[in-house]
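Person: Show me a sequence?

Helper:
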Amino acid sequence: MKAIYNSAISKNTASQRLVEFVRDTYQTNDFVPLHAPSFTGNEKHYLLDTIDSTFVSSVGRYVDQFEQQIEQYTGSAKAVATVNGTAALHAALHQAGVQAGDLVITQALTFVATCNTLHHMGAEPLFVDVNRQSLSLCPQALSEYLTDNAVFDASGLCIHQATGKIIRAILPMHTFGHPAQLDELMAVCLQWNLVLVEDAAESLGSFYKGKHTGTIGDFGALSFNGNKIITTGGGGMVLCHDAQAGQGVKHLTTTAKVAHPYEFYHDEAGFNYRMPNLNAALGCAQLEQLPTCLAAKRQLAMDYQALFSSDAGFADYQFVVEPEYAQSNYWLNAVICPNSEARQQLLEATNQQGVMTRPVWQLMHTLPMYQHCLRGDLLTSEWLADRIVNLPSSPILSSSTDNQL
């Protein structure tokens, strides 16, 4: 039996208006998830084709096809498919030269996989504050931190003065699909001899000044998890600014096996990170629907924006819109509540009524395994973490929502 949720449970004007809006938008009284995949295209056809071919693992035509299609869509010099977004980020950082003992500057306002990747490489995150407009790594905060805490050694490497550790790279994350301030971040990288690797896990379909996210830095990493804008079930992709470096990533992620008709010779300690053909087949079908999905998500975001700007019950709430320099995929819609109490009320009331909302992730420096990490002033990150609520963001692709929620 379908569950029916009663919007009268909430006495809070904001939460009740939001619940009513979401139910009207999705035309359902059932549970509304935060972001669900939609399979309305060639998914079953391509998956059956893969099974019939017997090439279901990492060798198969759909893997090559998916990589080529991502290259064409993003403008990347080389795209390399991986088993998940974390593997993509690991391969990208490894190819970028990050080593055990290095520091990598990133944001505390991110999903834990960003930092876990560094941890398992033996590197450490160094947290710098985010920008209110982009929700991503703030170029000004980054520049100020480096000016106050970094020096160059005799070989030109950027060194954290107090610890003597090498600061190797910066790792901004395009939060909720909204592009970071990449020109300004690149300028800081050039000034301090740092590599820029983009955590673009959430930003397929997002563009920074006409260029796709993940293609401005040396490397970028996409995710195709089940909750992303398109999914391969589990999967990721390394976007490479340089084609030769991309060949290195492909070699690395394929156990570093040297091509030979029958011999098994591996010339370095590689990773078994290649995406299976089954997952790539699903990705090819999903990618065919990406333009329609992006248009639907943009319309949903505009509807949310209109609600929060016109309804008197939301006078103190701010809907998160794309930065003026960018075109966002609006992967997860978000609203900034007036304070932490209002955030908690909104979360409790909506979830009690079967409309899934979520707070932003716990800030990384508050987690037990990253409390010891170096950090700058994180006032903006902490302010946002107290106030952000993510809203239901599944795209509405047709008049029927039966297979989209």
Summary: Residues 290-310 form the longest helix (21 residues). The first strand starts at residue 78 and ends at 82. The two ends are 16 Å apart (CA to CA). DSSP finds twelve helices and 16 strands in the chain.
